[in-house]
Amino acid sequence: MAKELKKICIVTGAIPPVYSGSGLIAYLYAGRLDKKGHLAFILTRRVGRYNVKWKNSEWKQIVPEAKIVRVPAFYHTGKVAFFFKLKHFWIEYIKVPLCAMWKLVRNRNRFDVIHCFGAGRALPLCAIAMGKVLRKKTILEMTTVTEDNTLNFLQAKPTGIKERLLFWVFSVADIVVTISPALSFAYKSSKLDAGKLREIANPVDIERFCPPREDEKLKLRNKLGIGLKQQALLFVGTIAKRKGIDLLVEAFGKLTNSYPDSLLFLVGPITKTRERQEFVAQMKERLEELGISEKVIFTGLIDNVEEYMKASGVFVFPSRTEGFGTVVVEAMATGLPVVTVNIPGVTESIIEDGRDGIIVKEEDPEKIESAIIKLLQDKELYQRISENAVRKVHAKFTNEAIDRKYEEIYFK
Fold first, then answer.
1. How far apart are CA 174 and CA 161, in angstroms?
2. What is the dihedral of CA 344, 279, 275, 151, to 10 degrees?
3. Do domains 8-203+398-410 and 214-396 have the same CATH topology?
């Protein structure tokens, strides 16, 4: 980094053990900052009832507790709608803003820059606003489509109070970071200052996610219960409809006609929201109807994702919306060929179709199945895509490459 020792305050709605894709990225990045002596602290939510039990082992804390500053968290209590809404309003719009502002004022001498991951929640909004009051450099990072809601509000004239407030926060932030062309396009479609936009992809740890040796792959397959001749497909992410799990279930059902001994690993948490639990129940019922429930393994939240990637044969990612798709890059880093459904402005920023992955243009289970079979049957194509994927990650998506881009922002 630059010679001048600047301290960075990382702001994110959640960090492990609470599951959040952007929160995990922020937490790992904070750990790297801490090793370099540039982390002031992380401002985040309390764990509350969303503390998730990670399978295999406890989550390894990489940022000292002394450098984690927490504000209240909201969670559903199961009470009647009126009290639920009242509590939600009290915590989200009064308690969190006041608490966050007080924490930043109290710790104002500990940091020089505020870097917020996620743009659609109360915590980042308050942090950017208070950063301007404290005359600190502020960076607002747009991380997901659904959470930030950026594709909707940026491309239309803001009308509601929340949309106007969010628009104002974007306008006062010193730098706005996006993680994909889709989010960049949304920002450029607004009347906001395009001069302060920076596009920086999510990184991958290439020491953790790397191609396995043949003996290592065999040991991992044995550990995970994968037979020598079995085809193992892998998905990583929250088990939700947005992630295209329904498409994957149908595609896998068709695939078992050609590969009856194949397995499908669905790696990721099943959140406690009623909507998602109902969706998972529907998927399990559908698996029973297709007669493949024993071939599909729900692992829950685990901390050894890289082992599943190294042991599997194809990574399938049928997600309907994403801000970026970090797990795709992680799979590519291990040399695991990827089949993904096209997400405009996201997928093609990571994969070149036919060269370092396969992009299915439509949400069609038959076409997903065909792409998987193409990889399984064409060994030359499989090997070429695997090697090209690793090369691309090493050239564009390493921690070091991405961290340098952040450094340019902090110290410019």
1. 22
2. 0
3. yes
CB 254 within 8 A of CB 246: no
**Predicted confidence (pLDDT) per residue in 355-389, tens digit:** 999 999 999 999 999 999 999 999 999 999 999 99
Give the tens place of pLDDT for each residue, 170-227. 999 999 999 999 889 888 888 889 999 999 999 999 999 999 999 999 999 999 999 9
Which residues of the chain have a pLDDT value below 50? Answer: 1-3, 50, 77, 147-148
Q: 88: which 2 tokens?
A: 């939600």
Contacts of 328 (CB under 8 A, 6+ apart): 315, 317, 338, 340, 347, 350, 351, 357
pTM (global) more than 0.85: yes
Q: For the chain, how many residues are written?
A: 412
Cα torsion for 306, 245, 122, 23, to the nearest 10°?
0
Residues with Cβ < 8 Å from 207, sequence gap 6 or more?
none
Q: Which pLDDT value is given to residue 224?
A: 96
Closest by CA to 339, choosing from 351, 324, 330, is 351
214-396 CATH = 3.40.50.2000
Alpha-carbon distance of 328 to 279, in angstroms, equals 23
In this structure, are residues 30 and 22 in contact, taking their beta carbons and an 8 Å threshold?
no
Beta carbons of 128 and 157 less than 8 angstroms apart = no
Fold of 8-203+398-410: Rossmann fold (3.40.50)
- 324-350 CB burial, b ≥16 within 10 A, e <16: bbbbbbbbbbbbbbbbbbebebbbbbb
In whole angstroms, what is the distance from residue 5 CA to residue 2 CA? 7
Give the pairing of strands 175-178 and 263-267.
unpaired
Report pLDDT for 119: 79
Domain ranges in the chain are 8-203+398-410, 214-396
Q: Residue 349: which residues within 8 A CB-CB, separation 6 or more?
A: 180, 181, 201
267 to 93, 124, 354: CA distances (angstroms): 34, 29, 25
Indicate the residue type of 169: V
